[in-house]
Amino acid sequence: MSSYDVIVVGAGHAGIEAALATSRKGHKTAIFTIVLENIGQMSCNPSIGGPAKSHLVKEIDALGGEMGRNMDKSFVQMRILNTKKGPAVRSLRAQADRKVYARNMKKTLEAQENLDIIQDMVVSITFDKDKKVVTGVKTKNGLEFLAKKVIIATGTFLNGLLYVGDKLVEGGRMGELSSKELTNSFIEMGLEIKRFKTGTSPRIDKRTIDFNELEEQPGETKIALKYSSRSSDEEVLAKPQLSCYLTRTNVNTHNLILDHIDKSPLYNGTISSIGPRYCPSIEDKIVKFRDKDSHHLFLEPEGFDTNEVYISGLSTSYPAYLQEQMVRSIKGMENARIMRYGYAVEYDIVNAKELDYTLEVKKIKGLYLAGQINGTSGYEEAAAQGLMAGINASLALENREPLILYKDNSYIATMIDDIITKEIQEPYRMFTARSEYRLLLREDNADLRLSKYGYEIGLLSKEEYDKVLEKEKAVYETIDNLSNTNVGTSNKVLVELLEKYNETIKSGISLKELLRRPSFTYQDVKEIARYANVSYQIDFRDDIEYQIEVFIKYEGYIDRAMKMMEKNKKLEEKKIPKDFNYDIMTGIGREAKQRLNEIRPYNIGQASRIMGVTPADISVLIMYLDGRLS
Ligand SMILES: Cc1cc2nc3c(=O)[nH]c(=O)nc-3n(C[C@H](O)[C@H](O)[C@H](O)COP(=O)(O)OP(=O)(O)OC[C@H]3O[C@@H](n4cnc5c(N)ncnc54)[C@H](O)[C@@H]3O)c2cc1C
Ligand SMILES: NC(=O)c1ccc[n+]([C@@H]2O[C@H](COP(=O)([O-])OP(=O)(O)OC[C@H]3O[C@@H](n4cnc5c(N)ncnc54)[C@H](O)[C@@H]3O)[C@@H](O)[C@H]2O)c1
């Protein structure tokens, strides 16, 4: 019987990060998947990033994960969204060449030392005789494998059912087997299982689209946009890009959908499970927003070597013939031919309240769950959990303290805190609004926030970490220098400011104060600094210069957010003993008592975020902890 330190079940976005983390840390790892060719498959939209999701990718990169690096090698388009908004919500969005992304990931896994890749379906998890410690897995091919840690990252595959209108097939994704037995292991452990659903859009043949009337959306080719601080600017700038195109649904599309609503498995009662509120199907959008007579659609190329074009925004489970009519009712697609039909998928998830902050199942030592199985939705959310499960399984094997991130230093922590503390009622996706610290958790400073952990854990090299320290030093030193340098009131400066920027100044103003004004960018201030003949360095890499500008322009907001963070930190620091007896408390609501008993929060901060626990309950709890009540 083969024996491993870690077994990872699933080679999707979560499983990949988990397996790379454990094997890179020197632990003998096996990763199981149903089909080898589909390692790192993007089930739906071949895109990574967008608001809050790009933040997650940059955090994954700062901790030494792979998603960002792989995207930098596999994209067909990169651009920044929300350029007119503040830096907290500005975000990178990249389109992948779907096949290249998956191939590059498979190559990375195959080249990894300490990692075996095995195509076999895991059918059950094995435990010690008391069912308290995981011991390994059994597979469909009748094999048994032993492991000290097991990470389950099976995505949408558990008892997956696929719907195209009234046509129903079993499957984890279209064309792939569903994983039918594994849920039984979770039921045996006494974990709560729920059922969620999601869906995907049709793909059409590029040759049948009339692009002439559609708005082109090219990528950014002048500035080096990338997810990983470990990719080179030259590498990303050298890559060719493809354009997306914008079109819209119209009244005819909407009428067609409404007239045949009984044909939608989502609306005729066939599917009753809960779908993603924030990435809804087109039928959901049209029923719920009846007053809107049009919705944006993006036509996104799936890669350089294919004619497949993905219709972003048209996720549907209507019958195939209606999907054709729907597509052809839209500008630019009047003669479009569908290559793959859209579908919905229904699958089992495990209620993530069963998990610890490390993503370990509380009841079973050594068993971790990561990705869509925990009720989240999205590649980035999955990858971030996979990485954290892989890191924590490794640290446990090394008898080291777990890595628990806090809501004030990452979106990763925000997501984990949300899914284990709040009862997830629908597929969970990340938003910037989910964080009260979003001004501090920008994608531009993910490396400054988290690289030290990546380095301490051993997933970032000294050289990679030094690069981040160099950025930090340059940013703080330059801010100091700019605040200590007077702009001066020479004629040359005054004329320049007035003529070029229509700005006037009084004597005594520093370069830092100038940069705080809306009319000036760091590039402008650099030019003015040259007149002042400054002796310090002012030219840096793009990311460093952007960071200096953000720090100075948003200093007031950032300071305020820091103060709020310090205040809340006190609640996080107030620990609750593991064996605290909630039952003896009086003056606290019944629901609160029950929820506290279920979740057993680690500290007052977490307790205060549990649904059903009120501020009054928290006051009582604090009094018990302080000994004022007993
Ligand atoms: C139809 C559809 C559309 C989606 N649309 C999008 C989208 O547009 N954008 C987005 O961000 N997210 C989308 N999602 C969600 C996204 O695919 C997931 O959130 C993400 O892929 C989850 O990653 P994961 O690693 O948890 O699982 P997955 O990527 O699903 O990977 C699961 C892996 O587990 C393996 N596996 C499963 N069971 C077993 C078993 N018993 N034994 C061995 N291996 C097993 C599979 O072979 C696979 O490798 C969509 C999902 C689906 C199904
Ligand atoms: N179908 C599913 O099961 C499922 C589940 C979870 C997540 N997702 C994915 O999660 C993401 C979240 O969706 P979202 O609506 O917030 O979009 P998004 O995060 O991709 O982009 C946010 C905004 O960016 C803009 N945008 C710019 N270029 C775009 C392009 N080429 N395509 C799409 N949007 C573009 C749109 O205005 C959109 O509102 C998407 O990638 C979606 O496909 C899908």
From TrEMBL:
InterPro entries on file: FAD/NAD-bd_sf (IPR036188), GIDA_C_N (IPR049312), MnmG (IPR004416), MnmG-rel (IPR002218), MnmG-rel_CS (IPR020595), MnmG_C (IPR026904), MnmG_C_subdom (IPR047001), MnmG_C_subdom_sf (IPR044920)
Pfam families the UniProt entry points to: GIDA (PF01134), GIDA_C_1st (PF21680), SAM_GIDA_C (PF13932)
Needed cofactors: FAD
Name of the protein described by the UniProt record: tRNA uridine 5-carboxymethylaminomethyl modification enzyme MnmG
Protein's job: NAD-binding protein involved in the addition of a carboxymethylaminomethyl (cmnm) group at the wobble position (U34) of certain tRNAs, forming tRNA-cmnm(5)s(2)U34.
UniProt: FAD binding residues: 10-15, 122, 179, 372
HAMAP family cross-referenced by the UniProt entry: MnmG_GidA
GO BP term (any one): tRNA wobble uridine modification
Annotated NAD(+) binding sites: 275-289
Alphabetically ordered keywords of this record: Cytoplasm, FAD, Flavoprotein, NAD, tRNA processing
Entry keyword Aminoacyl-tRNA synthetase: no
Compartments, record wording: Cytoplasm
GO cellular component, one term: cytosol
Occurrences of domain tRNA uridine 5-carboxymethylaminomethyl modification enzyme C-terminal subdomain (ranges): 552-623
Family membership noted in the UniProt record: Belongs to the MnmG family.
Highest taxon in the source lineage: Bacteria
